[in-house]
Amino acid sequence: MDPLEKLVPLSKRLFYKWKALRTVPFRSQFFVGYDLSGNTYWEFTMDRNFQNLRRKIQPHHRKEFTVDYYKNIPPQWHQWLRFVRNNPPTIQELLADKHRQEAIKELAKRSDEKWEMEKLQLEGQTNAHLKEELDKIEQARRKAAETAVPHRSQTEEPIRKASLKPRR
């Protein structure tokens, strides 16, 4: 099944095949390929000199700002646009890269879950250790309170003990 079947209708795909033919005379723009978003990529010449071909993208959906088009260009097509690679990427190459990215996202998700579980386990161990330490401190305080000898001032009532003397 062609992944572009839903994005690009058959009539448009046939039109693009015709536009990809380089043997048609007086043609200055040639279709090169699609990406998985439905964007089309073209080579063109300004002066009919086929030694200096330029490359461009025509987005599938128009956006308000042209800068936004470059956010979702696959790296393979970006390399082709910048003349880093000579041959345009194939649909199979783009699909393989998409599956690779999904696998990496799944592995990252699993890794995040693993680290979160380890973090919770470590926090649980730390909280249990702190609770044990606090219990020990509380027991030591109780033991100290039980064995402590009360001070004399605590047993006597301060009001009865006080003697008021008039001032001279």
Automatic annotation (TrEMBL):
<dbReference type="GO" id="GO:0005739">
    <property type="term" value="C:mitochondrion"/>
</dbReference>
<dbReference type="Pfam" id="PF05071">
    <property type="entry name" value="NDUFA12"/>
</dbReference>
<protein>
    <recommendedName>
        <fullName>NADH dehydrogenase [ubiquinone] 1 alpha subcomplex subunit</fullName>
    </recommendedName>
</protein>
<feature type="region of interest" description="Disordered">
    <location>
        <begin position="139"/>
        <end position="168"/>
    </location>
</feature>
<dbReference type="GO" id="GO:0032981">
    <property type="term" value="P:mitochondrial respiratory chain complex I assembly"/>
</dbReference>
<comment type="similarity">
    <text>Belongs to the complex I NDUFA12 subunit family.</text>
</comment>
<dbReference type="InterPro" id="IPR052618">
    <property type="entry name" value="ComplexI_NDUFA12"/>
</dbReference>
<dbReference type="GO" id="GO:0045271">
    <property type="term" value="C:respiratory chain complex I"/>
</dbReference>
<dbReference type="InterPro" id="IPR007763">
    <property type="entry name" value="NDUFA12"/>
</dbReference>
